[in-house]
Amino acid sequence: MRRAPFIRHQGIVAPLLRDHVDTDAIIPSREMKRVSRKGLSEGLFAGWRYRDEEKRTPEPGFVLNQAQYKNASILATGDDFGCGSSREHAVWALAEYGFRVLLAPSFAAIFERNCINNGLAPIRLEEQQIDALLAQTEADPQSSAVEIDLEKTIVVCPDGARIRFTLSEAARTLLIHGWDPIDLTLQCAESIDAFENEDRAKRPWAYF
Amino acid sequence: MPLTLFEKLWSAHEIRDLEDGQSLILIDRVFLHERTGAIALRNMAETGRAVRDPSRVFCTMDHIVDTHPGRGDETLMPGGQNFIRATREAAQAEGLHLFDIGHPLQGIMHVISPELGIALPGLTVVCPDSHSCTLGGIGALAWGIGSTDAEHAMVTGTLRVRRPRNMRVRFEGQRPKDVTAKDMVLHLIRQIGSDGGAGHVVEYAGRAVADLDVEARLTLCNMAVEYSAFSALIAPDAKTIEYALGRPFSPPPQHKATAVEHWRGLRSDPKARFDRELVIDCGTVQPTVTWGTSPQHSVPIGSTVPDPADEPDAGRRAAMKRALSYMGLEVGRPMEAIEIDAAFIGSCTNARLSDLRAAAEYLRGRSVSPDVTAVCVPGSTSVKRAAEKEGLDQVFREAGFEWRESGCSMCFYAGGETFGPGKRIVSSTNRNFEGRQGPGTRTHLASPLTVAASACEGRLARAAAE
Partners of B171 in the beta sheet? Predict the structure, then answer.
């Protein structure tokens, strides 16, 4: 299943400047109501986003409820974003809400991997770079779009300044081409079969 | 060239270099649970794909199952039974090994996986659960993945993996009698920080690790993800080999000798090079409890609530302040003066037979404080049965603990059960994040022994402090 190629994206940045935002904060377990990858965006950050979760009364202080961050598609956040549970629902919820890019000094490993598998770009920037970027957008976020270019591996700030970032070659290739990693691996079926046949002779106890 | 244990496991499973910084790695076992299993299996079927080798895929009901005696498919989580039924149907349709509710071998995935010989030394094991690193305790290379990668592993028998760096943590010296593997790992996380292991697979070595039994080694590895490690490993020794044989999915008699020979070679060569190395003198480790909302927020139990002003890093200082406010604690309060509302013994960290024995030994002839709700949830149905055979259930019950069926239970809120908002819980589990055990709950992580002592005292308490 190929997804849309991700080469460049331009969008509004919303800041959620906390470290160690865990996957249960991104999508609380109680919001994973159906046996599905869909319908999760309403539960995104539910514990922080709603004053009353049941009635869905918005908490006005929460960033995504503020008019200036309407239609944000880039989330700027803190260290170790996505730590905790491996639930891919966190990524499905962010993507369904409309996020395409996450900017953070670091991401939790399983979460980062889940992002790439779902076409969401986890971009690592230094804390100071994120602060400098937000200094440009925060006065008027709606008219301060930021561009992320995966081909050139740069973030283009509203003032035109470019911040270079690194993204693993594997992640960049998957995102740019919209490739499905399972399809890619299935192309290696012959090497897998050959390896397994040899391995079965060496480690017969590992097979049933 | 001398190799580390990890390098040996990696090269034994490396099918090829993908030339994009990743390798294609053979996956020996996949283990699913009902919270996410059905979504992965359904999505796989919808895309017209099938499980490559169902004999190597396992599925249990642990995350959201009810743990009250006499349970069925209904759970306290609204709509929970839909997840259970969908997973059951999908697992049956694919012909996977299923440990369903009522199955005599049902239990928490990381407890039953070694217990049944599914995770063995030298195997690669992946599960859509972050605590999969537990299985390193038996010498398996195991790590947590998301649903898409679970599909990938089931369909192709492989994963595309970036090779982690190598770290070794040597626990040397003699640990004090009341210091358990849980205290050792909490101590390590405080020292290394919650992101200290990022990008590394960590091999635990040293005398104090050799002294641990296999179950305690699983506890030590369980919390590697709490300091962001890719996984943890312990080289199999005679204890591991004895443990790994003779279980339902262990190597059959005709392959036993080959397996044992392979396992004996699974150790780091004397001159193997590690990217990082850390030595901890276990003589200095004390029973440890957390005070905050990250596993790195811990102190020796005889200590006091720390002062954020002493933390030089601004980000950490802010997190500490936030944690103190969430936890309702003030700087300088002795940890042993913190009163608790609830005590929980359970989870993939600390609910194996040896954990229950340690707690029961303390509880024998004592009672839980009348102000404390205490619950014990065995890690597996087999653990429960074995404990009952020894009469441990009676000890727990007589002391005032509830005695439950196996499951993840109140380690987190997925089952829909909680001690309640604002409640302070001493817990043998692995995470003390905000709201982890239900909205507004305040968690103090500790060993089962400390949980038992605290339950009786009605406050955080050291078992040997009398």
Answer: B280
| Residue A173 sits in the same domain as residue A124 | yes
User: What is the CATH architecture of B288-457?
Assistant: 2-Layer Sandwich (3.30)
Domain topology for B165-236+268-284: Aconitase; Domain 2 (3.40.1060)
Residues A43 and A113 in one domain: yes
Domain with CATH 3.40.1060.10 in chain B: 165-236+268-284
Residues of chain B with C-beta less than 8 angstroms from the C-beta of A182: 49, 148, 151-152, 155-156
CATH of the domain at A135: 3.20.19.10
| ipTM (interface predicted TM) | 0.96
Specify the DSSP element, H or E, that contains A113.
helix A109-117
Residues of B in contact with A168 (CB under 8 A): 20-22, 162
Q: Is B86 on the interface with A (CB under 8 A)?
A: yes
Give per-residue pLDDT as tens, A4-44.
999 999 999 999 999 999 999 999 998 998 999 999 999 99
Residue of B130, B256, B439 with shortest CB distance to A86: B130
Expressed as residue numbers, the domain containing A38 is 8-177
Residue B465, pLDDT > 70, answer: no
What is the number of CB-based contacts under 8 A between chain A and chain B?
A: 172
pLDDT digits (tens, 9 = 90+) for B57-115: 999 999 999 999 999 999 998 889 999 999 999 999 999 999 999 999 999 999 999 99
Q: How far apart are CA B246 and CA B411, in angstroms?
A: 30
Using CB atoms within 10 Å of the CB of residue B280, give its burial: 0 to 12 exposed, 13 to 18 middle, 19+ buried: buried
Query: Is the dihedral angle over the CA atoms B72, B402, B429, B267 positive or is it negative?
Result: negative
Nearest to B56 among A47, A189, A208 (CB): A208
Q: Could you read off the pLDDT of A102-135 as tens digits, one per residue?
A: 999 999 999 999 999 999 999 999 999 999 999 9
Comparing CA positions, the residue from B333, B328, B390 lying closest to residue B356 is: B390
Q: What is the pTM of this model?
A: 0.97
